[in-house]
Amino acid sequence: AQTVTQSQPEMSVQEAETVTLSCTYDTSESNYYLFWYKQPPSRQMILVIRQEAYKQQNATENRFSVNFQKAAKSFSLKISDSQLGDTAMYFCAFAPEGAQKLVFGQGTRLTINP
Amino acid sequence: NAGVTQTPKFQVLKTGQSMTLQCAQDMNHEYMSWYRQDPGMGLRLIHYSVGAGITDQGEVPNGYNVSRSTTEDFPLRLLSAAPSQTSVYFCASSYSLSGREQFFGPGTRLTVL
Questions:
Q1: What are A60's strand-pairing partners?
Q2: Which of A19, B50, B58, B65 could form a disulfide with B45 if both were Cys (CB 3.0 to 4.6 A apart)?
């Protein structure tokens, strides 16, 4: 069974700082997808970034980037120039190729302080 | 497009009552799923559907039923509510199985007394 582990229950940084959220996963699959979802206080789940395991290049979306280490089964999210609106729960998620399911980590509560 | 909609937003039930959580999407997505979110546990898959008339169990299916008679709708039924089913429920849909983004509804907060 696949598992996703986020070892940081809570993090707090000052506005404009850079913060990195950690995620590790366990799978025997060779092809899969990894995601970071953001859940602000509104409760809405919002996709932040997506990585395909067969792509060696790390995904980036504006201020958000990932460090994907396939051999180490690690998938961290870096938020640069953090903003107050980045305050949210962040979930790392794994999806096997061809399967309609997401396996989520426990989440990291990120607070950006002014 | 409204995207994925869920009703109701909040619900309080007594133990043993039944109810249906509604989910609809207007994006013509074939794939729909139900998740529950509990504190400290992330989201867990309850049931999913790969198309009208086809459903399957996820990680935590006990106590829940689903059906998919149309592409648009995917209701989740609680047959006899228990306090352990107190949770936030999310419906999601996606275009394909190929690791595409899943679009989530706004969630339903359910409390079972």
A1: A65
A2: B58
